[in-house]
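Chapter review: from sequence to fold.
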Amino acid sequence: MLLGLDLGTSSVKALLMDESGTALGEGSAPYAVRSPRPGWSESSPDDWWAAVLRATDAAVGRRGAGVTALGLSGQMHGAVLLDESGQVLRPSIIWCDQRTASECEWLDQTVGRRQLLEHTANPPLTNFTATKLLWIRSHEPEVWARVRHVLLPKDYVRFKLSGERAIDVADASGTLLLDVARRRWSSEVLDAIGLDARVLPTVVESPHISARVSNKGAAATGLAERTPIVGGAGDQAAGAVGMGIVRPGAVSATIGTSGVVFAATDRPTTDPHGRLHTFCHAVPGRWHVMGVTQAAGLSLRWIRDRWDSRTSYDELTAEAAAVPAGSDGVLWAPYLMGERTPHCDPDVRAALVGVAANHGRGHIVRAVLEGVAFSLRDSLSIFADLGVPVDRIVVGGGGARLFVE
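The token string follows.
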């Protein structure tokens, strides 16, 4: 039996399966995302671990000794800070936090965007882990002085299971600290920002064994001691493997809270304008390019909640289906949380324009759906500019059915 743990933004999911992929058990458990100030997003790693234990128990029960291996996936870009003894120093600043605009400007001016693209294949963004570390160093020096280890969210779960500090190349690509082309930490960037490489976890390929369940991990979960834990992957790379996006020409469009257009490549392809992310894939010897719409499914949820959160999505999309294409001139720019592709601007804002007295809710809902769809298409246009092949597109994610039905 194989166990998968996926540490999402607001809940963890556990899935137990056999080697044929047949599900044998599943569980999930929620945890809070807190926003102590506008634009800030934080979670407690201790809450994650407690939720992992609940979800694992629901999925595995008393069968833990029969689990032969486990893998991890989860939200990317977060920062978990540990002291010398492995204790968490502060809540994790997670992927959607937007507080680090000044740190991005500092990286642009100090390291230089061209150098960052050369060494990490990506521009500085508020989402990336490096900017969070710089913010803590500047704003919480008493915390920073005690930092001895930095982990990403799912890798904290690995640490609690095994005592080992490791990260896969796909998740490490989203830190702005990895030499994506060479699949190792970038000594050039670490030196430029003054970060000691010893605080970072060991980098491994996704399918490689990264750790084994410790005595303490076994006692907490019921899994057998020394059960292997593979490297795993950040959620986007892991999801792409699940959808078969592992070779050049295969592309996915995944629509959840955010929307991601993801293409596998056989070499690192960097956008010189920094509009796309270029990361290592979970498949050894492969990379991927990825465009992100920050507020894809979130746009529809936001507009629904402005009316009545009890209104079903089916009701809203039925009203939208009765409106002609183009929504009679109503337009939606889906920048509720700033934007990554193609603007790379945390301060850009959403806009609903062209509304007249003859427009109803269906026009606005259709405009929201169209605005998100055209935002996702921006990524495909950049793929074409870069010569990234697109032979087929697989659509996934909970929000995807709204666009294909």
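Two observations follow directly from the output. The longest helix spans residues 361-386. The mean pLDDT is 94.
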